[in-house]
Design goal:
By secondary structure, the protein is α+β, with helices and mostly antiparallel strands. It has 4 helices and 6 strands, in the order ααβαβββαββ. α2 (24-68) packs antiparallel against α4. It is rod-shaped. Residues 23-65 form the TadE-like domain.
Length: 217
C-alpha cells in the first residue's frame, strides 16, 4: 500500500512539473532582450556611420576650398604656367591662354600625394575636418591631387590646376558586438557583422585659384 501511494504521488508530481510554466517567462525575456539589444546597438552604430558620412561630406568641401587657395600639399606642383617644350615657333606671347592652341603651356599631368601634417596646407586643413572622421583616422587618409587643365590659366601666369581632395583607406569600426547579439537570438550571424567596414569613398574637386600667389593668398 505504501509503495502504491508513493508511486501515485510521484506521478502526480511529474504531471505538475510538466504543467509548470513559471520558467517560460524568463526564457522568453532572454530571447526578446537579445533582439532588443541587437536593434538598439545596431541603431547606435549605423547612426554613427550616417553621422560621419554626412559631416565628412561637408568637411571635404571645406578642405577642397582651403586647398584651392593655399600652396600645394604635394611636392612638384609648378608655380607658374611655363611655355611647352614642344611649342612651335614663333613662340606665343606671355599672357596667351593655355587653350588658345596646341602645346602652349607645359602639360604636367596629375600630381597626387597623401596628406602629411608637416605640410602647412595639410596642417591647416586637418584640424578643420578631424572631428568629422571616424575612429583613429590620421592625415594620411586625405589624398590631394593637382590635375593640369588647359582651360585654366595663361602662359606666364600662376599655375591653375583642378584641385581634388578625397578620402582614402579609411575603415569604420563598430563598437557593438552585433554578431554576438545575433547569436544570442538563436540565429546565425552573417560573416563580418560587427567588424570593420570600408568607409564610403568621397572626393571634392574645384579649380585652383592663385595657390597662394595672389596678394591676399
Amino acid at each position: 500500500m505504501t509503495a502504491r501511494c508513493t508511486y501515485r504521488s510521484a506521478r502526480q508530481r511529474l504531471r505538475a512539473f510538466r504543467r509548470e510554466e513559471d520558467g517560460t517567462t524568463l526564457v522568453e525575456f532572454a530571447l526578446v532582450l537579445a533582439l532588443f539589444l541587437l536593434i538598439l546597438f545596431g541603431l547606435i552604430d549605423f547612426g554613427r556611420l550616417a553621422f560621419h558620412y554626412v559631416t565628412t561630406e561637408k568637411a571635404m568641401h571645406v578642405a577642397a576650398r582651403v586647398a584651392a587657395v593655399r600652396p600645394p600639399a604635394c611636392a612638384g606642383v609648378p608655380e607658374f604656367h611655363r611655355i611647352s617644350d614642344s611649342v612651335t615657333l614663333p613662340a606665343p606671347d606671355y599672357g596667351t591662354r593655355c587653350n588658345a592652341g596646341g602645346a602652349i603651356c607645359q602639360t604636367t599631368g596629375t600630381i597626387s600625394c597623401s596628406g602629411a601634417i608637416a605640410n602647412p596646407t595639410v596642417a591647416e586643413i586637418w584640424p578643420i575636418i578631424r572631428g568629422t572622421l571616424p575612429n583613429d583616422a590620421g592625415p594620411d587618409v586625405l589624398r590631394f591631387s593637382y590635375a593640369y587643365d588647359p582651360n585654366l590659366g595663361f602662359l606666364g601666369g600662376p599655375y591653375v590646376p583642378v584641385v581634388t581632395v578625397e578620402i582614402q583607406n579609411l575603415d569604420f569600426q563598430f563598437i557593438s558586438p552585433l554578431g554576438a547579439l545575433v547569436g544570442l537570438t538563436g540565429a546565425t550571424a552573417p560573416s563580418g557583422l560587427g567588424g570593420d567596414i570600408a568607409f564610403p569613398a568621397m572626393s571634392v574637386s574645384m579649380p585652383g585659384e592663385d595657390l597662394a600667389h595672389g596678394s591676399a593668398g
